[in-house]
Amino acid sequence: MKILSPAEKALAFRDFEDIWDNKTSRSILILVPLVMVLLLPVVFLIFFLNVPMTRMNGVEQMLLLLHAQASGMDERQGMFYLMTNMICPMFFLMIPLISSSVSAAYSFVGEKEHGTLETLLLTPLGIRKILKAKVLGCVLLSAVGTCASFVLFSIVIAVGDLMLSMPFYFNWNWLVLVFLLSPAVMIFGVVFMVLTSAKSKSYTESVQTSAYLVLPIVLLFTGQFTGLYQVGAELLLLISCVLLAVDFLIWFLTARLFTPEKLLR
Amino acid sequence: MSEIAIHTQKLGKSYDGAVYALHDLSLEIPTGAVFGFLGPNGAGKTTTIKLLSGLLKPTEGSCTVLGIQPEKKPSELHRVCGIVTETARMYGRLTGMENMMFFGQAQGLERRESRQRAEILLKSLDLWDSRDKKLADDSTGMVQRLSLARAMIAKPKLLLLDEPTNGLDRESVLHVNSMILDLARREGVTVFLCTHQLRDAQELCDSFGIVSRGKMLACGDLESLSREVGLSLQVRFRLREGKIPDELQRLDDESWGRDIADEEEMPKLISGLVSSGNEIFEAKLVRPSLEDIYSRFVELRGNGK
């Protein structure tokens, strides 16, 4: 069974081109991953390699947060491990979230803003197929960006691990994060944008709304520094499952409740 | 008896539950007809098109287009019906040909078939030379004609057109009008045309609906509408000066005339004038134009009749 019909494929492909052709979307889709998985980890790595740990405040308290498997590491290794497992997941998750929500904002609200959504609704595709093609298109675009970011991130961190004589960074946390939480977050970014697209008046307004979505991720990972909890593979697994259920619920609601009249309002 | 292409029964739409954009519209348009839906801006023409195309749900009454209920099966309807609305735009980033190819595929045509249809339509609507130009760089007239081409890409059985000649120069208007007529006459395509350009409507349509403030004021062909408002046929003669003809009134400096009930009266009138020694330079049968009828309707409505 084909996932997309030729008409749906044509729509998804045209969406890719449209999103990529828009300067704001293209800049966000390129810059966010580069900053999150290349620039910030490299800056941290250079910092850890060159600044004496004794000159940093609070290193000891931070190292207390380390997982059991990081015991036996020196301060430099410990700080790099901390960055890789407590800060970088936050940076990494922003990629699927921002790329998917920005793509969806352009795909839905941009299309509405340009008056082409009405023309699409006048084709035999129908609202469900339009939603399906657009959601899958945005998820696919975001997945490509996230996969490329993951490869780049792995290279950067592997280089850091080699330079600091540490084992390869990939663990259970990252496994759940990459293969379950990232897709769940990606789908959430898209379906959330679809849900709010009926209310949004412009693409810019929509992109601004998407900025609020990163807050829970920031709170989840920075909250670990209070020492009250640690984000482990089990918690990530639980969050992934809940988020996938929410994704399904939003998708179900969107597909049932949306009518051309509501979308074009 | 021809089949009914568009049927509406007390169709109405209110956006806020208080004011009706369209109220109590009952219509029957036969297959192959070119129906002109006339009225000023804000009369409810666009709302009607959107209800007939399934973009809006009626708040009262019902409608069927080619036997399909638009609000229930819009996709099925859009397969056989081409629609042009003023707010349905095409992709400015794409060229005319790319737009046509995309919408051809969205209509369910194969890529090759889309290209073939696009070529035919772009040529016939005089858009071939600008086919590789981005739509954003095209003039309003070209964009409008491309919208019409888009609506016709899948050989529709019915066209719902909302002001399709808006923004076009006279030459393009005539071109588009002749294409619509051709489609209706040769291929039996039913056309529902919303317009406030009465001259074009008279050239194109064989029956009319006059709508104002969401309500249908009258519906019928030119003859029945003129009867309804009390406008009749008029004869006009240009005669040699000197004799005063019986039964005719002076209309202006050059002509004489009067209202007649039927065109059958014309030969009798001419022979009467000739036998009474009048010399006829010109004899004309003047039918009330759609503009006359429309103005009369507006006048009557103003008088509350």
UniProtKB/TrEMBL annotation, chain A:
It comes from the Bacteria. The chain crosses the membrane at residues 28-49, 79-98, 135-160, 172-198, 210-229, 235-258. Pfam families: ABC2_membrane_2. Keywords: Membrane, Transmembrane, Transmembrane helix. The lineage of its organism: Bacteria, Bacillati, Bacillota, Clostridia, Eubacteriales. One of its GO terms (molecular function) is ABC-type transporter activity. The keyword Transport does not apply. This is ABC transporter.
From TrEMBL, chain B:
The lineage of its organism: Bacteria, Bacillati, Bacillota, Clostridia, Eubacteriales. Gene3D superfamilies: P-loop containing nucleotide triphosphate hydrolases. Belongs to the ABC transporter superfamily. One of its GO terms (molecular function) is ATP binding. SUPFAM superfamilies: P-loop containing nucleoside triphosphate hydrolases (SSF52540). SMART domains: AAA. The gene is drrA_6. Residues 6-238 form the ABC transporter domain. Its EC number is 3.6.3.-. It comes from the Bacteria. Keywords: ATP-binding, Hydrolase, Nucleotide-binding, Transport. InterPro entries: AAA+_ATPase (IPR003593), ABC_transporter-like_ATP-bd (IPR003439), ABC_transporter_ATP-binding (IPR050763), P-loop_NTPase (IPR027417). Signal peptide: none annotated. This is Daunorubicin/doxorubicin resistance ATP-binding protein DrrA.
